[in-house]
Design brief:
alpha+beta; Aminopeptidase; 2 domains; 18 helices; 50% helix; elongated; transmembrane
């Protein structure tokens, strides 16, 4: 080959053409060669890439130099979107199935692992996107905003998934601890009957006693809910022949004035645990049997809220707001161990009050100058105020504290695998007004719960539940008779209202309250 061949016009022309083509491709390819575009387009390109990584992870890699990584990431992203869409569809046609997934320990473990893996992968994609952006080639004035923007998006993406994993793991632990086992949620005559108890084991009393007892009776089909309060001083509680308590009290719990219904818990816990060998809380099981006999309902499940952890739960919620109708003493009452009067250490003043855990507990349990029915009215206000505080923002931002307190507060024999059905019913219940009834004032006189006519009470409860299916409210005459403490029973299912609470409490302002 001759030397002149290298410098021939043809060779020089070909080399120049190839160089021009390469330079042209760089200039017209701002994705992979941002250094050949102007500052404005470089900045625009960088922000677009960051937003693409946030909204469609993997898309930047797919259009740049790491197409294999991009394909995998986009596939994962689209698959997740598809799963979310499927869950939305299932929620509308088989909601119980979706709820069962998110109350399953196995599924929650998988969810935690998935969320952590997605968080790590997403953050890696952001890091790779910054490589593609080539910050060192960016105009100096644009670098700091881009780094801050990337940091914010990475915090939202990785932090959001990380916190979701934390919530899933914490919830999984709480569900496993609170709903560790028990009796399957049972339907009786088309209803789920669950006993809700408020247990108090203060230093001034012997053992833990449920000071408040309410049966939550839920229509299994519609979710329509009726609450039936059972006064703590109910005497002569009867038991069905298939109850273990029948062996000890075949003629009812009629051992004297001290044998009111809330003492059954302590009696069985201390003396008759062998009657319920398979139960983790024989006292709660026996109380449930007693309430079943009193109301003529088959109550199969219970939830006990222990007041010993109540303060922590209220504090975890950030306190509760209540419009206090009358002065409520802190302290007072009689020490059940020594028989001496307890000192009064202060008062919860009338008016709208933001109560922390300590004051909310005293507001709910204070006995000084109050009847049991005043305390029941105040406890209903506390329950309503707590429910009001359980808004999505509060739950998400304080989830850990609320869950930790809940594990100390709640005890139940409802198993974890029944939670999906219960949650589904609870969602249905939101479509109806809550109907309230009581086996005492205002529907009966003060002596009735002490010496109840069980046949009459069974018939009244059955009618309340039957009427609840059509949402029948009591007549004006029945309301007037019942609310002044007369012996007339309501002919329909009276709706829970501030009228009921306030009128019962008119005998003592100590029990008047509302939730603003």
């Amino acid at each position: 080959m001759h030397h002149e061949d290298f410098d021939s016009p043809t060779s020089i022309s070909a080399t120049r053409t190839a160089g021009e083509k390469l330079g042209s491709s760089r200039i017209t390819d701002p994705i992979n060669h941002p250094e050949y575009v102007n500052d404005r387009n470089q900045i625009k390109r960088a922000w677009i890439f960051l937003l693409l990584t946030f909204f469609l992870p993997g898309s930047v890699q797919l259009i740049s130099d790491r197409k294999t990584l991009g394909k995998r990431a986009v596939t994962v992203t689209l698959t997740l979107w598809g799963l979310i869409l499927l869950l939305v569809i299932l929620w509308n046609i088989r909601r119980t199935l979706v709820l069962s997934l998110f109350t399953s320990n196995f599924v929650l473990v998988l969810l935690v692992i998935l969320l952590v893996a997605l968080a790590i992968g997403w953050l890696y994609l952001f890091a790779d996107t910054l490589r593609v952006i080539r910050l060192k080639h960016m105009p100096p004035q644009a670098r700091t905003p881009l780094v801050l923007g990337a940091a914010v998006l990475m915090l939202l993406a990785g932090g959001g998934l990380g916190y979701s994993a934390y919530i899933a793991n914490t919830g999984r632990g709480a569900l496993g601890n609170v709903f560790a086992g028990g009796t399957q949620l049972k339907e009786e005559n088309g209803r789920y009957n669950i006993l809700l108890m408020g247990g108090d084991a203060g230093a001034d009393r012997v053992g833990r006693r449920p000071d408040s007892m309410t049966v939550i009776s839920i229509d299994a089909e519609t979710g329509q809910t009726v609450t039936i309060s059972v006064p703590r001083n109910t005497q002569n509680a009867i038991f069905s022949e298939d109850s273990p308590m029948w062996q000890i009290y075949p003629e009812g719990y009629n051992c004297g004035d001290e044998c009111i219904i809330n003492s059954i818990y302590t009696d069985v816990t201390e003396n008759h645990q062998d009657l319920y060998p398979d139960s983790e809380d024989p006292g709660a099981e026996a109380t449930m049997d007693a309430v079943s006999g009193v109301l003529g309902l088959e109550v199969n499940n219970y939830v006990l809220i222990d007041m010993s952890g109540f303060e922590q739960l209220v504090d975890a919620l950030g306190g509760i707001t209540i419009d206090v109708g009358g002065e409520v003493p802190i302290g007072g009452g009689t020490d059940l161990i020594t028989g001496e009067k307890n000192p009064i250490d202060g008062y919860i003043e009338p008016g709208v009050q933001k109560l922390d855990g300590f004051h909310a507990l005293w507001y709910a349990r204070s006995r000084e100058g109050a009847s049991d029915y005043d305390r029941q009215a105040r406890q209903r206000c506390v329950q309503a105020a707590m429910l009001k505080q359980l808004d999505p923002y509060n739950v998400l931002t304080k989830f850990g504290d609320i869950t930790a307190a809940g594990e100390q507060v709640v005890e139940t024999n409802i198993p974890q695998d029944a939670l999906s059905s219960l949650a589904d019913i609870g969602l249905k219940a939101k479509n109806y007004e809550l109907i309230g009834y009581a086996a005492g004032p205002p529907y009966y006189d003060d002596l009735f719960p002490t010496y109840p006519d069980f046949d009459q009470l069974h018939a009244d409860v059955a009618k309340v539940l039957e009427d609840s299916k059509s949402g029948i409210a009591p007549s004006a005459e029945a309301q007037a008779a019942g609310f002044v403490g007369g012996s007339t029973r309501a002919t329909g299912a009276p709706f829970e209202s501030t009228l009921q609470i306030q009128t019962v409490a008119e005998l003592s302002p100590n029990g008047t309250c509302s939730v603003p």
